[in-house]
Amino acid sequence: MKILALFTIFVLIFGTTTFVNDAYAQNDLSILLRIATQADKQIQNQLYQVYGNEVPEKIQSLYTKGHTAVNSLEKSLPNDVKQTKKDFLTAMKLFKQISKMTSEPTVKVQITISHIDQSSQLDRLEKYVLMLKTISTRLNANIDFENIDNLLIKTRNQINDGTENPSENINQLKSLIKSIQKDIRESTSHSAFDRIKQFVDRQLDRIEKKLDKAEEIGADQNLINEAHELIDEIKTLIDKNQINDAKMVFHELNKLLKNIQYSIG
Amino acid sequence: MNPEIEQIHGEEFPGEYGMLFVRTDGIIDTMIRMPLLVASLIIVAAIIPIQPSFSSPRNLDLIIYPDGTTHVSSEIDVDPSNIDYELELFGSTIDNFVAINENGFLLNYDILGNFVLIETFGSSVITIEYDIHDLVSKQSRVWTFYLDAPSDFTLLFPKNSAIIGMTNLPLDMQLIDDQNQLTLSGGETEIDYLFSSPIISVPVEPIDSLSESNYFIYVIIGGIIVSAIVATIIRRKPRTTKLTQKQQITQVEPIDIETIFKLKPDIREDDKEIVKFISKNGGEALESELRKKFLQPRTTMWRAVKRLERNGIIEIEKKDLQNLVKLRKNMEEEE
Fold first, then answer.
1. Of A251, B8, B249, B268, which one is least surrounded by beta carbons within 10 A?
2. B274 with B304: CB under 8 angstroms?
3. Best residue of B188, B321, B324 to probe chain A, by most A CBs closer than 10 Å
4. For chain B, what are the domain ranges?
5. Which fold has domain B257-334?
6. Which of B83, B98, B199 sits opposite A41 (nearest CB)?
7. A250 burial class (0-12, 13-18, 19+ CB within 10 angstroms)?
8. Cβ burial, residue B48 (10 Å; 0-12/13-18/19+)
9. Residues A201-223 pLDDT 10s
């Protein structure tokens, strides 16, 4: 009987959690109506702008179906969750179809660098600089951001005024960002090197232990010797701060370890 | 030394009529134990979410800029025993890439086509951020966002954009700094949006098909003239105008809420807040806006609105299938 009681408690706890989550999701169903109503209005507006009062019959029929689905969606809220979701998807798919049909004569354009809006581009660069500031502060890198801050303000003013072409300043900003990145790396290179060295030492230690075990159970001695040579090579390269070379040898070592493992069976 | 002999159920004597009474507790326990165990395991398996594995994003946030470029930000669990980590990006036109580990170290990386190889060197969590131009395309006025997401993600739309079509159900929607942010589930998602233009009420006058081109010229010229007049009026008589959700300029005379509260002293405190909000909103608000503002369920807000209507403080109008709640202007006269 104790088991029965425990089971009941278990089901109650998890069941309640699940129902609470469901209830939460259901509360948010009104967002579907908000999106669908907004889309309905925009489509109606778009149809008027494109066709005036002479909307093609096929499109009008699709719109009517979509609008009816939005009405049904409103009525099914908040109790009929299944119907709400169905109506939402029906309406949004129909509106999507209509928007595609009304845009058909024009060619679909993938956004490319040439389409990039300079104001948005500056927003992104500003966001990037902000991130570099956060990294710099966190790592105590002591980087001077004054120049780039001033240039950001200057470029923003240029864009707002619309008098000068900000392209040159945007390029300069990009170049400054690269230089700041480099400065951050240099100022934290010591800690970064320590981090890499610690990791490599830890990994090599683990690999050496594995090799000892492999040797005990009769793995190919030539392969084990080769692995030890690679370990020594990695250690030497790390001491010389030749990280990229060390990485390559590390990959080679990992491949060799797989072969050793395979030879043991 | 006369220990009391305890009767054991299993050794009970058969009854008068030779019937054998067996204690059933143990049998029931045995019979239900296994099915219960199995049922419990099934429930646990169904309820407990799958543990995130390496390479699965902990979170994925996307921001669409007005020019269609998308900023991607993601936190990913990586195997701390590896020296590097290869990640497939959402496209190949990448700008402003940055990768940092859990300690804030800038990680070296190498982008090759759609892939990036990040030197993790024992990091267990990495954060990557980049801008990408591959996720949004444009056809006429319609912008289309498409992503096959590896996990649930949030998507922030640009200001003044309106979603006009989508293939999936959103998990959530929030308004952040006048921008819509959707939470969407992983998998393929396609969303159409456009930059909203004011909703034009459909005129009753028929369009003269013969002079259609002239008509558009007249409309443009008329629009410019009207804009100029409106601009002059606004300049001469500065006044705060507010665009409603339907983006119609409404000119509602200021409503003195203190007078309302004086005339209706018994009004509930929470109802007063609603009245204040409607008043600040230019004297009218959609019931859905009130629900959003006061975070009230539909029925609660409906009751509150009905209460205010019964008190003669507001009137409800149906507008585009929604309830438009308006403060009554002639309340004082009625009193």
1. B8
2. yes
3. B321
4. 14-47, 57-195, 257-334
5. Arc Repressor Mutant, subunit A (1.10.10)
6. B199
7. buried
8. exposed
9. 999 999 999 899 888 888 888 88
CA dihedral B126, B130, B136, B138 (to 10 degrees): 180
Question: Using CB atoms, which residue from B32, B104, B165 is nearest to A139?
Answer: B104
Directed axis angle between helix A243-264 and helix A221-239, to 10°? 160
CA A184 to chain centre: 23
How close is the nearest chain A Cα to the Cα of B243, in Å?
Answer: 15
Helical residues (DSSP H) of A103-188, grouped into ranges: 118-138, 146-161, 167-187
DSSP assignments along B121-155, one per residue = TT-SEEEEEEEESSSEEEETTEEEEEEEESS-EEE
Nearest Cβ partner for A96 among B165, B169, B298? B165
For residue B229, with 0-12 CB atoms within 10 Å meaning exposed, 13-18 middle and 19 or more buried, which class applies? exposed
The number of angstroms, rounded, from the C-alpha of B28 to the middle of its chain's C-alpha atoms is 50
Which of B63, B71, B163 should one mutate to test binding to chain A, selecting the residue with the greatest count of A CBs within 10 A?
Answer: B163
A20-60 residue pLDDT tens: 444 444 446 788 888 899 899 989 888 888 888 888 889 99
Interface pTM, i.e. ipTM: 0.77
Contact B284, B245 (CB under 8 A): no
Q: Which amino acid is at B185?
A: S
What pTM does this model have? 0.62
Strand order in the sheet with B314-319: B284-286, B322-327, B314-319
H or E, element range at B77: strand B70-77
